[in-house]
Amino acid sequence: MKTILHTADSRGTANHGWLQSYHTFSFAGYHHPERHHFGVLRVLNDDTVAGGMGFGTHPHRDMEIISIPLEGDLKHQDNTGTAALIKHGDVQVMSAGTGIEHSEYNANADKTVKFLQIWVIPKVTGVPPRYQQISLKAEDRKNKLQQILSPNSEDQGVWIHQDAWFHLGSLDKGTALKYQLKDPQNNGVYAFLINGSLEVAGSHLTQRDGLGITDTHKFDLKASENSEILLMEVPMGLPRV
Q1: What are the tens digits of pLDDT across the range 49-101?
Q2: Closest by alpha carbon to 191, among 41, 33, 14?
């Protein structure tokens, strides 16, 4: 097993006043020569948006874009005609494909919204743009791992054009779990600790730390205190262009 630890304070930062963003990987004005991606996981941004503010209409192409609100509500609109409110407990995915334009705003004027913005490089390009959103049941991740994303449209959670699986877990102190990779020959797992304190694959993580895990079939997790974690299993090889 190989691991690489990215502590919360080692991330890139951008403060635009209305937006405070932390970048695990190189993004926009933040460039880290050794942190461009983890396999096909290209972007992991931890964003806080001030009340009533947000991202104006902007384009994306050939990228799988996942939004996970951690606090507050996001208002989404795009040029496919989709308009939606994304709340804490929801997961949203856009397959940008041949091109999509969208905007995201804090739906509330009196409080901030916090969300994870994740980009995954797809295994195919030029697909028709698509949008999907689901609401999760918190009890389905209580002291266990809840699948929230997969490559299969008929499987649990949202789906994307990539052989990736995401899981959320909400673990009470002392809870121990094991994660078994779906495709250990090709995939690795990037663990992101949303809050708490957790032992993952032999490494101690605290709030907003990230850990890349490769060359293994499985690994252990144990909560040192009440914790919430996101596991992102993704192919380590980049698609051929």
Answers
A1: 999 999 999 999 999 999 999 999 999 998 888 899 999 999 999 999 999 99
A2: 41
Taking phi over 0 as left and psi of -120 to 50 as alpha, with beta for the rest, 141 belongs to alpha
Question: Which structure tokens are listed for 1?
Answer: 């097993």
Write a three-state SS string for the chain.
CEEEEECHHHCEEEECCCEEEEECCCECCECCCCCCCECCEEEEEEEEECCCCEEEEEEECCCEEEEEEEECEEEEEECCCCEEEEECCEEEEEECCCCEEEEEEECCCCCCEEEEEEEECCCCCCCCCEEEEEECCHHHHECCEEEEEECCCCCCCEECCCCCEEEEEEECCCCEEEEECCCCCCEEEEEEEEECEEEECCEEEECCCEEEEECCCEEEEEECCCEEEEEEEEECCCCCC
- Tell me, what's the pLDDT at 82? 86
124's CB contacts (< 8 A; 6+ apart) are 161, 239
For 110-149, the pLDDT digits (tens) are 999 999 999 999 999 999 999 999 999 999 999 999 999 9
CATH topology of domain 2-235: Jelly Rolls (2.60.120)
Cα–Cα distance for residue pair 198/206, rounded to 1 Å: 7
> Which among 162, 202, 171 is positioned nearest to 63, based on CA atoms?
162
Phi–psi pair at 40, nearest 5 degrees = -85, 0
- CA nearest to 17, candidates 43, 44, 46, 48: 48
